[in-house]
Amino acid sequence: MIGGGGPPSEDYQLTWLVDHRDPEISVVVNVRDGQGSQEYSFRCTTDGTECVNDLPRLRETRRLVAVWEDTMLVMAQRAITPRGDFEARDRLSLAASGERLIFERVITNDRGERTVRQVFRKLGPHPSQRPPPELLPSVSLPAELERILRDYEQHWRDGNAERLAALFTEDGMVARRGGWTPSLTD
Fold first, then answer.
1. Which residue stretches of 73-183 are H helix?
2. For the purposes of burial, counting CB atoms within 10 Å of the CB of 101, is it exposed (0-12), middle (13-18) or buried (19 or more)?
3. Is 14 in contact with 1 (CB distance < 8 Å)?
């Protein structure tokens, strides 16, 4: 997941969630501003095949062709929109050891040509993309240790700080909301 287009502010934030498994790329774009949040997604391949993306929420159709030029992804796009049609030439590359995505676009429409450059910083994997934690193999414990661990779990779930503390040595303490509970000693 990457965020960018400049420093995020309370009024504007742009985030791209990129899933790239060459030759397939899918991108979910989220734009948040003072008016609310808007999200759309598109897909393409990097093999030069034209991909057509209908974006009903934006009432747009975009035709994309993407190819790799060395380590840069180059995309040509034609868009039909309610605000006017446009063509775009995009160049995407990574910098800072993959921590930055540089997005450069030249847009041509009936008002002429303009250039846009955005730098996105890597935010880390989206929760849905994180691999599941590795499960450790189970082991057999000595009976006394097994009992103490099960008692510990039970007392923790019950919120019984005194019984939990009693599982520790006489100078042991148990952290809980509101402070510490010393172990019980006679």
1. 143-158, 161-165
2. buried
3. no
φ, ψ for residue 167, nearest 5 deg: -75, -15
Within the chain, all domains assigned CATH 2.40.128.20 are found at 2-126
Structure pTM? Answer: 0.59
Fold for 2-126, please state it: Lipocalin (2.40.128)
Mean pLDDT for the stretch of residues 100-109? 92
Show contacts of 114-118: CB within 8 Å, 24+ apart.
118/4, 118/5, 118/6, 118/14
Joined together, the tokens standing for residue 115 give: 């250039």
Give the chain's length: 186
> Which class for 96: exposed (0-12), middle (13-18), buried (19 or more C-beta within 10 A)?
exposed
Which tens digit of pLDDT belongs to each residue from 49-91?
999 999 888 889 999 999 999 999 999 999 999 989 999 999 9
